[in-house]
Amino acid sequence: MTNQDKTKEPFFKLTDKAVVKIKEYAAKMPEAKDKEFRVYVQGGGCSGFSYGFIFDDAREDDQIFEFGGIKCLVDPQSAMFLEGATVDFIESLQGSGFSVDNPKATGTCGCGHSFSA
After folding, report:
1. Which residues pair with 38 in a beta bridge?
2. pTM across the whole model
């Protein structure tokens, strides 16, 4: 099975604003050439888990989702934390970056970059 065959119906959302920003980054960053956008969860941060975003190659066990022409990769461990979440791009006076609204998070830290589940 090729990675193309693995594209599935998404179990989380990527907002239109996030899609636009990912396309902008992909056009500007040489390291994004021929890569897909990965959303992942890793241990760490002040609340136990943190979100990560990177341009990466698909792996055998990844789930692949498409949003507005952007292919988004999620590994199996991250998938269980991201179900029902919405990934957005926020611009404010405090800074800008990707933000995750996650109904599975039981707590978040003050910085907004980590959560507990």
Report:
1. 54, 73
2. 0.81
